[in-house]
Design brief:
Blueprint lengths: L1 H18 L7 H11 L2 E3 L5 E3 L4 H27 L7 E3 L3 H37 L2 E2 H9 L4 H10 L7 H20 L4 E22 L12 H9 L2 H5 L13 E2 L2 E3 L1 E2 L6 E17 L2 E6 L4 E6 L2 E6 L7 E3 L7 E4 L3 E2 L8 E8 L5 E21 L5 E5 L11 E2 L11 H4 L1 H6 L3 E5 L8 E3 H10 L13 E2 H21 L5 E8 L5 E8 L5 E22 L1 H22 L18 H9 L4 H4 L8 H7 L3 E2 L7 H4 L3 H10 L1 H13 L1
Parallel strand pairs: 9-19, 15-22
Antiparallel strand pairs: 1-2, 3-25, 4-26, 5-8, 5-25, 6-7, 7-9, 9-17, 9-25, 10-11, 11-12, 13-14, 14-17, 16-17, 17-18, 20-21, 23-24
Helix pairs in contact: 1-20, 3-4, 3-14, 4-7, 6-7, 7-14, 12-13, 19-20
Length: about 650
């Protein structure tokens, strides 16, 4: 009974206030003043509780956070355009760690930042809905839609039955959907991509071989011949390894060129080094004679009356050199023709060569060495040559007459200038020079040329009838380059010393002994070379698609938030709001402070969503001064409500009795 009378008294006071004749202070209004005036108060247990009631702070936060999000995405566009993010480079082994770190940082930042945006915008939306005079169902839909994008979509669907706030719900749904899109694009802003990184460095190289002439002074007593003599005892032992030089062991050799070799292996990339091409040019000799000596079984060769040397009997299709003092004089038992199909230096033999008399003429010519500067591009890891500029490959050549005693061109390197001497003392092979096997043996250089031109093939149809001059010059260039590479890179482990050993019976026998080899050859310093090192690295990459979508989304969020941060209603500045939420406790508080709702709302026997939303289509303001629509409701509107509820009827009658 007490509760019923108290409730009736409350309603009686409400009706008096509705008529405008009586103002009844209530216990609720008595305690309302200190609650509204304090933003920082102490609870009964002594804890400090802070409540922000100023809408200005929330609006300022909303404007700052939304505009900052737009500015961030705008700033990323010039970063992508100038590829500034590519300057952030990592080693390949850190790719997985850095990828996880970038994803974690961007996702954490995006989640926290967007959560703050939603919180601030939701608070502003709640406050706006609480102080706005609108149907109670609209307030319910607008506030409930902020529970999530699913809830917002559900309340859009409910508008089909009861259209309370279609614009407000669509605004909330669009805002939350945009936030969802930004949750997806933010972690995808940055990614990692692999690329070939190029680094320029300087490496030291080894150059051409040379004689060790550290003590050379150029005087008569200490002249160049002493160093040449020392090399003569060393070089043949080194050249024994010439046939075993192949593509897998010729670091520093390519074709007819020697290139500087880096002393250390670099990373993956290229190195530009100095290279030297060995250019061999051959000319024929004039006024040749070849007289056979029965005493020596050799041919005496002269040019213009000047003696050139002695030639041994040789089988057909052989290109060889004569005695060591012939200064690069060669002879051939196969025709050598130039690009004009001419031959030069051919001399008829009065006595054919070899026991089968198959060689009746020979061709005598002299070759010269000149060097040409080149640039070689090497693979930094394997030190193999990948490019050479300019190339030295002859595709045509012509015979020209030559004086055998002319001055030879010099290279400035005494070891290279004596190339004809080293060529003529090339080690012998086990292949006989003549068919009978009694005319000595072919040198390793002779075998190289025979294999090069397929001169003694088992297939007779593949044997050429002649050799072109430019092919011969190219082959000699390769052979001389290989010879110097072998001299400079392969050190013999021992050498054979031959001497006459006198027996007790005063007879002499040959004595063969092994001795250590003193190396008179060194490699010159090639100087410094530029190494372009390439390695696979990882760099940061900005996704312009994610930036564009993020920029559009941030602009949409800012535009949607303006209705809460800029557009105000005049009631919002009249007083601070005691509450700014719509939770269960907030709903109880609002219902206790709005007893008139029991009169305005119809009793719902079946509380479905549609029925409750139909009943809530009553225009009111939940916080702040009562709306004029509520305050001006006449008794004609109240009586139908009272007829439906006995409790309400008692309140109405009690109010009328008070009048």
């Amino acid at each position: 009974m007490y509760q019923h009378l108290s409730r009736s008294a409350s309603h009686r006071e409400l009706l008096h206030n509705a008529d405008g004749n009586t103002r009844t202070p209530s216990a609720t209004e008595d305690c309302k003043a200190p609650v509204e005036s304090a933003t920082l108060h102490r609870s009964r247990k002594g804890r400090k509780i802070f409540r922000m009631k100023s809408a200005e702070s929330l609006r300022l936060l909303s404007l700052c956070f939304h505009s900052t999000l737009v500015v961030i995405h705008l700033a990323l566009i010039p970063v992508w355009f100038k590829k500034l993010e590519n300057r952030v480079v990592f080693a390949l082994q850190y790719q997985s760690i850095v990828s996880f770190f970038i994803t974690a940082v961007t996702q954490t930042f995006g989640t926290i930042y967007l959560a703050v945006l939603v919180l601030v915008t939701q608070k502003l939306s709640m406050r706006r809905n609480l102080v706005t005079a609108q149907p109670l169902t609209a307030t319910h839909d607008n506030t409930a839609a902020w529970a999530g994008i699913g809830s917002a979509f559900l309340h859009i669907w409910h508008q089909k039955a009861v259209r309370a706030s279609i614009t407000g719900i669509l605004s909330v749904f669009l805002y939350l959907a945009t936030v969802l899109v930004l949750h997806i694009t933010t972690p995808g802003l940055f990614s990692l991509e692999t690329f070939n990184s190029t680094t320029i460095s300087v490496v030291h190289t080894e150059g051409l071989p040379a004689m060790n002439m550290s003590g050379y002074t150029g005087t008569t007593s200490d002249n160049l011949s002493d160093y040449i003599y020392a090399a003569v005892s060393y070089i043949p032992a080194s050249l024994y390894y010439l046939p075993y030089v192949d593509g897998s062991t010729n670091i520093g050799l390519t074709g007819g060129s020697l290139y500087d070799v880096p002393k250390t292996n670099a990373a993956i990339g290229t190195i530009a080094v100095h290279a030297t091409a060995f250019n061999i040019t051959c000319d024929f000799l004039e006024d040749l004679t070849a007289d056979f000596s029965k005493e020596h079984s050799l041919w005496s060769v002269s040019s213009g009356g000047s003696f050139l040397g002695w030639l041994e009997s040789t089988q057909p299709r052989v290109i060889s050199t004569g005695a060591p003092d012939q200064n690069g004089v060669f002879y051939s038992t196969i025709p050598i023709i130039d690009s004009n199909n001419n031959t030069g230096g051919v001399v008829r033999l009065t006595h054919p060569m070899n026991s089968m008399a198959t060689v009746s003429s020979i061709q005598i010519f002299q070759c010269f060495l000149s060097v040409m500067e080149q640039t070689a591009v090497l693979d930094a890891e394997s030190k193999k040559m990948v490019a050479l500029h300019p190339e030295l490959i002859k595709r045509s050549s012509a015979w020209h007459p030559e004086n055998p005693y002319q001055t030879f061109p010099t290279t400035g390197n005494p070891l290279l200038d004596e190339w004809a001497l080293w060529y003529s003392i090339m080690p012998m092979s086990n292949v006989p020079r003549g068919p009978a096997g009694s005319d000595g043996y072919l040198s390793l250089a002779d075998l190289y040329l025979i294999r090069k031109f397929n001169l003694h093939s088992a297939n007779q149809t593949s044997i050429p009838s002649a050799v072109t001059l430019h092919d011969l010059e190219n082959a000699l260039s390769e052979l001389v380059a290989t010879m110097f590479w072998t001299i400079g890179h392969i050190v013999p482990t021992y050498q054979v010393q031959v001497s006459d050993l006198l027996q007790p019976n005063n007879t002499a026998v040959l004595d063969y002994r092994l001795s250590e080899v003193e190396n008179p050859i060194l490699l010159l310093s090639g100087g410094d070379a530029t190494a372009t090192e390439r390695s696979i690295k990882v760099r940061l990459d900005l996704n312009i698609i994610a930036v564009s979508i993020g920029l559009a989304g941030s602009i949409v969020l800012m535009l949607l938030s303006l209705q809460y941060s800029l557009l105000r209603i005049h009631h919002e500045n009249e007083q601070d709001l005691p509450i700014d939420g719509t939770g269960l406790l907030h709903a109880i508080w609002m219902y206790r402070n709005h007893p008139e709702l029991e009169l305005f709302l119809e009793q719902v026997d079946h509380p479905t969503d549609d029925n409750l939303r139909h009943a809530g289509m009553v225009r009111t303001r939940l916080v702040g001064r009562r709306s004029r629509e509520t305050e001006s409701m006449d008794s004609a509107q109240l009586h139908p409500q009272a007829e439906k509820s006995p409790g309400m009827r008692e309140v109405v009658l009690a109010s009328l009795d008070g009048l």
